[in-house]
Amino acid sequence: MPSPADALEALEREARRSLSVWRRLTAAQLFVGSFLGLVLLGTVLLLTLPGLYTGERISAIDAIFMATSAICVTGLAVVDIATSFTPAGQAVLLLLVQLGGLGILTFTTLIILALGRRVTLRSEALVSGTEAAPQNIDPVRLLRSIVRYTLLIEAAGAVALWLAWIPELGVAGAVWPAVFHAIAAFCNAGFTVFAGGIARFAGDPTTLLILSTLVVAGGLGFLVLEELRTLPVRSPRPRLSLHSKLVLVTSASLLAGGTVLFLLFEWRNALAPFTWYERPFEALFLSVMPRSGGYNTLDYSTLTSASLFLMLVLMSIGGSPGSTAGGIKTTTVALLVALAVARLRGRLNADAFGRTIPESTIQRAIGLAVLAIALTAAAVLLLQVTELGGVPHSAAPERFWALTFETVSAFNIVGLSMGVTANLSPAGKLLLAALMFVGRVGPFTLVASMALAAARRRLHLRYATEDVVVG
Description:
Helix content: 55-70%
Low-confidence stretches: 116-135
Number of helices: 16
Shape: globular
Strand order of the largest sheet: 1-2
Distance between the termini: 75 Å
């Protein structure tokens, strides 16, 4: 039998071994592991806690789907939250949304900062790379700001929604819906506690503007919000970083362009029942929500094909880095546009706002876009197989659009649906759950791993050059 001293020494060796394993984890592994742990925790809570459901407890597959959708702040649902969950169940879902939203913000914002300069996590630099992020923001202060401003913005949104909904729901009845939707909207998770969704507020400019503002604020990213907050007010020419400029210009262009196009596509169609002054607000709402918001006041099956295609594009772009939004991000699109413009002008290097963009950053953007397109295409094909099998297209032509829409929405963490989520097969639900998880952690992991590989590269080996015909 070992002596107490030998037992203590064995425990110390095991502790050192565990600490060594912890320190060897990369930022990407920590990020993926944390979200996998949250999904497992959410699944267990939904399967075991009492008093969460108005009727029977949901199945294990549905619990996995709902937990993944909440933690990844997607908003897709296989059951009606308003009728299937009790207030306690809705509160658990909202807690998972808040945990997922804050987890995304803290992890991705720190790692994005690490891509711009050497930032220590556990007293070690996890990743380093090109100077792509603002250099004047302290990471510790930023973390505090993330939590503080998340709660402040959500509280302000809840108060605004409460005031807007008092006439219809009453003083007490508007409290819980206002709190729920403020948190869900800021975290870009399109969950709702209203039966039938928020279609009851179609044409209501106040509600549409409040929800749109919360979604946009959550999708800009705290790097941008913090930099805007710290700008010197009295400076004659306050200088924003290139990152913030690209985010703000691209986001504004997408919002304005989407609004105008939806007005053109739907003026005599889905927007026809609204008055002339309500239509611009509905068009703005249509432009905001595909970029990860997830709320809808219209039946998307009634939209024109042009509008549906535009939504697929907006869903694929998503929000900005360091935010709760999904997609390939606004900065990725901006860099690809800058690269295209540079090539058309015969320039070797891409630039924007008087700054040359590092080639390594351009390559990461290209890699992320290519991977996203490939994964989306593969997922669309798989979902068509699991849900339609050998059914001829002529027998269910509308299902192709609906399933494609569902796949793009899941992978880009949007939460919009054409009404087929609850009717998916178990295989289809698990596929979308996996897609939401990959769409949430995959792009980040790819960018972080590419930056880490570039930072650790020691051999500069280059093979002989041989050209390839393109076009």
